[in-house]
User: Which sequence fits this backbone?
């Protein structure tokens, strides 16, 4: 490590005292990357500073110290771009404030519309020239810290050290005002439940729609992971990766010899991603094979224009509800926020505009309520209070365990008929009655 940067190194406590003031906006990042040591040091400032607002999202570690230490929100307020499992629990306690956004627009939010005072940037160990990698969360970190008043790097010894294509995943110690390091917990892991019979049925239908050489964008969840497992065992070849989040789903396809990226028009031979979330095996794969990947920022990975320049882009995501017009609620139960739109719209549009591309919303036709009654996930209209995450104009394919329908190019009446055909049989009659009154 170059000696000229030694003066920037200090304890997390000293860095926080120097960097953070009352009233500041502090960015923690997104996904599995997390400034663990700085979070603890900032929490220790409770009562000494006031009205410090922390932004993050999709946190998969089990604890955010600034939130847990201050349930009265005397010093700290936590804001999330995307509610993850842990943040959902915080939300039920009134300890998280949700901010809606599409991920592709987030860099411009930071450039032109919102303020960042302090950026806590998690990075890998530096090389002999002082360059660090952004580990498992490229996010839009460069945009954030180039617009921040104060930048603090937190070196995590567990992060993969890949630096990306032409430095796409790289930062330099000179870009930080302060640098901290220390012992970290093992990286947070993201696992998946065994697929249900319904997940398997939906995945089989979707796999039948995927050609050789397809470029895959797989959302997080049971059906996308099941699709990947089936692709690993299929006869398909030369599959590609251009995705918001790379996961063990892609590792499974790589190990089966299916993920070669050989036919991609952009980043040929490389798996392109913005975040990494999964097992330690996944993180080891990134560490040991940096030449297989193009980790990039949101501007690069989530650009519909760039995605659309590749052929046969297949985007697979889940949803909460769809109505008979094809409008989708992907993120809420009434006014209760369950997650966020994330990059779903970005990849739906990219797939829509790709030659041979297909965007799928995969959803169970029905669910069981707490009282045991069956409720349809295909509804006449998205109920009041719930979010319309994706408008009817961008939804291309919908898959349930009863089939796959293509909605693009259909009239409202034809859309309703298509949606009813893949609804749970117990609800088709009442949906048909509504459709006759509304669309016939």
Assistant:
């Amino acid at each position: 490590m170059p000696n000229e940067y030694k003066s920037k190194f200090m304890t997390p406590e000293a860095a926080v005292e120097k960097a953070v003031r009352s009233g500041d906006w502090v960015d923690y990042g997104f996904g599995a990357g997390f400034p663990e040591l700085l979070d603890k040091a900032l929490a220790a400032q409770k009562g000494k500073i006031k009205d410090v607002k922390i932004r993050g999202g999709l946190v998969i570690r089990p604890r955010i110290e600034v939130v847990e230490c201050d349930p009265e929100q005397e010093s700290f307020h936590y804001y999330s771009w995307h509610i993850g499992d842990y943040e959902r629990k915080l939300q039920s306690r009134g300890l998280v404030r949700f901010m809606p956004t599409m991920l592709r627009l987030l860099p411009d939010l930071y450039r032109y519309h919102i303020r960042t005072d302090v950026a806590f940037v998690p990075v890998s160990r530096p090389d002999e020239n002082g360059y660090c990698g952004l580990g498992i969360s490229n996010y839009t970190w460069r945009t954030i810290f180039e617009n921040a008043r104060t930048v603090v790097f937190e070196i995590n010894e567990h992060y993969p050290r890949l630096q990306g294509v032409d430095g796409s995943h790289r930062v330099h110690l000179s870009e930080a005002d302060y640098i901290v390091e220390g012992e970290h917990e093992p990286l947070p892991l993201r696992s998946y439940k065994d697929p249900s019979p319904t997940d398997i049925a939906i995945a089989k239908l979707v796999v039948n729609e995927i050609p050789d050489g397809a470029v895959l964008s797989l959302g997080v969840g049971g059906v996308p992971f099941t699709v990947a497992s089936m692709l690993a065992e299929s006869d398909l070849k030369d599959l590609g990766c251009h995705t918001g989040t790379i996961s063990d789903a892609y590792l499974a396809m790589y190990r089966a010899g299916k993920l070669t990226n050989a036919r991609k028009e952009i980043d040929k031979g490389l798996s392109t991603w913005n975040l990494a979330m999964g097992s330690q095996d996944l993180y080891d794969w990134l560490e040991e094979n940096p030449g297989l990947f193009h980790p990039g920022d949101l501007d690069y990975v989530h650009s519909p224009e760039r995605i659309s320049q590749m052929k046969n882009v297949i985007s697979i995501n889940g949803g909460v509800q769809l109505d008979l017009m094809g409008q989708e609620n992907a993120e809420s139960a009434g006014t209760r926020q369950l997650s966020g739109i994330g990059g779903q719209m970005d990849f739906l549009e990219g797939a829509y505009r790709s030659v041979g591309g297909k965007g799928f919303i995969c959803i169970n036709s029905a669910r069981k309520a707490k009282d045991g009654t069956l409720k349809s996930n295909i509804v006449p209209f998205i109920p009041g209070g719930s979010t319309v995450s994706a408008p009817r104009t961008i939804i291309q394919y919908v898959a349930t365990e009863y089939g796959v329908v293509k909605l693009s190019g259909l009239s409202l009446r034809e859309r309703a008929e298509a949606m009813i055909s893949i609804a749970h049989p117990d609800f088709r009659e009442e949906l048909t009655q509504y459709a006759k009154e509304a669309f016939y």
User: Anything to note?
Assistant: The chain has a mean pLDDT of 96.
